[in-house]
Amino acid sequence: MGKLEGKVAVITGGATGIGRAAAKRFIDEGAFVFIFGRRQEALDAAVADLGPNARAVKGSVSDLADLDRLYGAVKAEHGSLDIVFANAGAGSQLRLGEITAEHVDETFDTNVKGTIFTVQKALPLMGEGGSIILTGSSAGTTGASAMSAYSASKAAVRNLARTWAEDLKGSGIRVNVLSPGATATELAKEALGEEGQKVFASMTPLQRMADPTEIGAVAAFLASSDSSFMTASEVAVDGGLAQL
Amino acid sequence: MKKLEDKVAVITGGSSGIGLATAKRFVEEGAHVVITGRREKDLKEAAAFIERNVTTVVGDVSHLEDLDRLYAVVKEKHGHIDILFANAGAGTIAPLAAATEAHFDQTFDVNVKGLFFTVQKALPLFKDGGSIILNSSVSNVLGLPGFSAYAASKAAVRNFSRAWTLELKDRKIRVNTMSPGPTETPALETTTGLTPEQAEQAAGQFASQIPMGRRGKPEEIAAAVMFLASDESSFITGVDLAVDGGMAQV
């Protein structure tokens, strides 16, 4: 029996990369998964691959009406929700001196405001035994050139979990942060190129980038009762990148 | 397939509490375990509880010759090690003004020196690609009156995992720290020097400081150790995994 048997999960940014790998793993463990993303084509491809225990809802986490539609669909089909993996994120790069208001707004709208409302709007459907997982980043505790808005937004995400563990006291709902390091998603491989991937691998104590399935495995741990005494924690899945 | 099928695991301090629950879980997941403890009677009871695939070695991690004996048994019986949970710890309570040299020495002998050599002496038997888990404590980042030596020793443990991550990376051995919060184990009553009434009071006080409103169960800590021992955590190394109900996180 899978460790998420009969559970209902929402994964934002679930059509590709880490979200997609987590969706596959959750389904393998017995869950029904709603993936949420902005591109219909990517969602269709994901659902075709993930099979009958996946549904797609198109939308953006920075648009509250889209989130209402997402949870409306969950409620209509399942009535309740056990797991939220608030994973959608944005991260373009601009050095200090070049930063624009649009860049800051876009980064924080998706990573911070989007995460807040992804979780807040899920709560009416959640109860005892629920698990919320927020995608942070090794960038949340390190400095990297041109990443100031992104890393600040991910530090904010890490701190949301601290407050929410207190706000959710007594509800039986846990909230933790999963902070990946360099991960070899299709998007990252394309953006970094061969050379860029080598640089990230060499910076990482494990001397390689993560496979998205390795991040999905940790998301499944945090979603399951194996992490039942963990809340407000941050689990770094970064090959040691930000740990030493 | 089980997560630790045919893996060989060594667990120090395996006769009670977190160590025992972890040994039980490892065996359920398919591993063979070798557990150590200082009292033969407790080890025998632990072995009976674990039921199968368990070997016991009496010994104290602060005695290096005991560690040599432990690893000689492991070598003879299994030939190698895949997983090490360096879990044995000591923690009597003593306020700064009243602490004795013996208190300080015992705390650091077991928690720091004992753990250091537990890992060092395991290395010749360690399979490349294995997993080492060091038991630290939420106190590694918290101030708790009466626990200063303990907390400092556990901060030392957390930092071992940083250097060792680098020292062992070429062998693909992952090294992580796991930091439990207050847990429902016999230790609070048996090792801290508290009376049963004081222990009960302390347990209640801890629960009130934990966002989850309760202490952890040994099985919950064991589940997290299992995660770090298995390939589920294949991209996790050098971390301090807090399993503390939020106690040191908020």
From TrEMBL, chain A:
SMART domains: PKS_KR. The keyword Oxidoreductase applies. Keywords: Oxidoreductase. Residues 7-185 form the Ketoreductase domain. It comes from the Bacteria. It holds the Pfam family adh_short_C2. InterPro entries: KR_dom, NAD(P)-bd_dom_sf, Sc_DH/Rdtase_CS, SDR_fam. The keyword Nucleotidyltransferase does not apply. PANTHER family: BENZIL REDUCTASE, CHAIN DEHYDROGENASE, PUTATIVE (AFU_ORTHOLOGUE AFUA_4G08710)-RELATED. Belongs to the short-chain dehydrogenases/reductases (SDR) family. This is SDR family oxidoreductase. It comes from Bradyrhizobium diversitatis. The lineage of its organism: Bacteria, Pseudomonadati, Pseudomonadota, Alphaproteobacteria, Hyphomicrobiales.
UniProtKB/TrEMBL annotation, chain B:
Keywords: Oxidoreductase. It is an enzyme of class 1 (oxidoreductase). The keyword Oxidoreductase applies. Its EC number is 1.1.1.47. GO terms for molecular function: glucose 1-dehydrogenase [NAD(P)+] activity. SMART domains: PKS_KR. It comes from the Bacteria. InterPro entries: KR_dom, NAD(P)-bd_dom_sf, SDR_fam. Pfam families: adh_short_C2. SUPFAM superfamilies: NAD(P)-binding Rossmann-fold domains. Residues 7-185 form the Ketoreductase domain. Belongs to the short-chain dehydrogenases/reductases (SDR) family. This is Glucose 1-dehydrogenase. It comes from Bradyrhizobium diversitatis. The lineage of its organism: Bacteria, Pseudomonadati, Pseudomonadota, Alphaproteobacteria, Hyphomicrobiales.
